[in-house]
Amino acid sequence: QWLSDRKKRALQKKDVDIRRRIELIQDFEMPTVSTKIKVSRDGQYIMAVGTYKPRIRCFDTYQLSQKFERCLDSEVVTFEILSDDYSKIVFLQCGRFVEFHSQHGHYYRTRIPKFGRDFSYHYPSCDLYFVGASSEVYRLNLEQGRFLNSLQTDASESNACDINPVHFLFAMGTAEGRVECWDPRTRNRVGVLDCALSSVTADTEIEGLPSISALKFDGALNMAVGTSTGQVLLYDLRSSNPLIVKDHHYGLPIKSIQFHHQLDLIISADSRIIKMWNKDTGKIFTSMEPEYAINDVCLYPNSGMLMTANEAPKMNIYYIPVLGPAPKWCSFLDNLTEELEENPESTVYDDYKFVTRKDLENLGLAHLIGSSLLRAYMHGFFMDIRLYHKAKMMANPFAYEEYRREKIRQKIEETRAHRVQLKKLPKVNKELALKLIEEEGEEQQVTRKKKQKNLPSLLKDDRFKVMFENPDFQVDEQSEEFRLLNPLVSKISEKRKRKLKILEELEAQEQEEEEEPEGKASDAESSESSDDEKGWVEEVRKQRKLLRQEEKVKRQERLKEDRQTLLKPQFFEIKEGEEFRSFKDSAKKQKLMKKTLGDRLKLEEKLGTLNVSDTTVGSKQATFKLKKSEQQKRQQEAEKQHRQERKSLRRSASHLRSKRGRGRLFH
């Protein structure tokens, strides 16, 4: 579905499987968007409306193709098939128009006073009931061909309506979150349900007033109501309280409600998800989340087929065998599903590469999340294989060379496998492998005597293969844990080491087949292995003594190194405006910082930098004297000297002026 039309055509020519793929109805799609989809009562015709341009398409299930297509003047809000086939259809359009179509095409067009949102057909009286952006319910009689007196309701606006198929009770859902029920015979209101109040439960979080967005009757007594906040309420008409409240948890208006009688399921859908749940318990049966927003859902009668109108050109068809059999016009689906269950096959995407979020971060493509280049799928994304190869080449340019070397190495190993194989010990954990070979030989002899089945060897088991190939799994026999846990193994391991040396010498001298060291252990070895607890305790003590001696030697070596090392002088940089006194000042500061606030305040009170006094209100008042840095002190001293010099200059100048004045008076 992600491929272009050109690529699809090219694949159809090449790939046989694609040519064999099933397209139930040919060109089952709209130019841009499909809004509503319905099935005729005889089950032969599927009708869908959509845009752009506004149109209706009728598909014949017997021919598995399109029957006809008619373009309309304005977009269709909803439509109803009045006859058993496609011969009588009514459309409610956006521009307040009601359009009637017959078998040949357009028949008649009229207009209602206010914009309509939904309508229902009352079969006994041939009345159409229109609800919309008005408090009135308009009635149009198709037998007389005229409007009748409208029903006056208490609602400001109405969104949905439905007529019960058994006793023909008319119900309408209002914008205030109520359902009003009317009797068409007397044209009187018989009851009101407050669904907005009932939809609020302990778990739900509602921001605004829930209005009614969908309505559907089931039998004589049951009715399902969908709200604009994503709740579905199931009512028994004899009670004002709902039997069950089901929340979709998306906060989106419920678009469609359908009943599946065979399994007692309710199929409710908002624009994001289709949920199937049990009407008695509320337990989820299954859910489907299409790629595009859902506009309408249609359940094909007495089958397990489901059709959806989406915000996309293609209209989806789902077949769920658990819900029921396939329709008679596509009965081959049952055989196909049985074959698929017997032979499950994994889907392979040749043109796309599946990557996780971690892979994208490694490739440096995490910024593409949310763009059209990545398509979200399960726990990762699908991206174009060409883009993936380019990004990988840029992220790791030598990856191809490494891959080539690895492939060459694998090919060489494959050719080596066909040669005459020698019984050789592995490169890693040779002693452990020798021990396992010895034990295996002993077990084989025991099983031969007792006639038991041989147990699988660790050396041949693929799960433990890496332990004898990867050097990271090498057993460190000099570690403290190994020496304390395996004290009795030490003597046996010495003998094995001798055997290993002999084997290595043989390998170096002769590159021929070698006899694997098998057979029973010696008497001394068996006696040591079956030693009592005293021997084990003595070995542990010896190992501990050896460990202590090794630690002493290490300490002495460290001391020698410390004595030999010469301490080099370290230089520290002092900030501008500060004088270095001693290291004691920094130590004092660190000690002060460790003390509590109370202790520091007491110290500062003693030094005279802090003054604490009681106020009239009863609280405490503290005044601080900030410590001045050396640079600030120098500046203050310079300012003082400057002021004194200026004062002395002023005095000398005034003294000179007074002398001159006296001299003039004397002359």
Task: Write up what this structure looks like.
The chain is an alpha+beta fold. The chain contains 15 helices and 32 strands. The strands form nine sheets. Strands 1-2-3-4 form a four-stranded antiparallel sheet, with no helix packed on it. It has a four-stranded antiparallel sheet with strand order 5-6-7-8, with no helix packed on it. Strands 9-10-11-12 form a four-stranded antiparallel sheet, with no helix packed on it. It comes from Pterocles gutturalis. Its main location: nucleus. It is found in: Nucleus, Nucleolus.
Strand order of the largest sheet: 1-2-3-4
Question: What is the tally of helical segments?
Answer: 15
The end-to-end distance, rounded to whole angstroms, is 122 Å
Number of strands: 32
Helix-residue proportion: 25-40%
Mean pLDDT across all amino acids: 80
Strand content: 25-35%
List keywords for this structure.
667 residues, four-stranded antiparallel β-sheet, 32% helix, WD repeat, nucleus, WD40_rpt
Concise structural overview:
The chain is α+β, with helices and mostly antiparallel strands and 667 residues long. 32% of the residues lie in helices and 27% in strands.
Helix and strand arrangement:
Elements lengths: L4 H10 L1 H4 L13 E7 L5 E7 L3 E6 L4 E7 L4 E6 L7 E5 L3 E5 L4 E6 L4 E7 L4 E6 L3 E6 L4 E7 L5 E6 L6 E5 L3 E6 L4 E7 H5 L12 E7 L3 E6 L3 E6 L7 E4 L8 E5 L4 E5 L4 E5 L5 E5 L5 E6 L5 E6 L5 E4 L12 H11 L9 E4 L1 H7 L10 E4 L2 E5 H11 L3 H19 L12 H21 L29 H6 L3 H21 L13 H7 L3 H32 L18 H12 L2 H11 L2 E5 L5 E5 L5 H37 L1
Antiparallel strand pairs: 1-2, 2-3, 3-4, 5-6, 6-7, 7-8, 9-10, 10-11, 11-12, 13-14, 14-15, 15-16, 17-18, 18-19, 19-20, 21-22, 22-23, 23-24, 25-26, 26-27, 28-30, 29-30, 31-32
Helix pairs in contact: 8-10
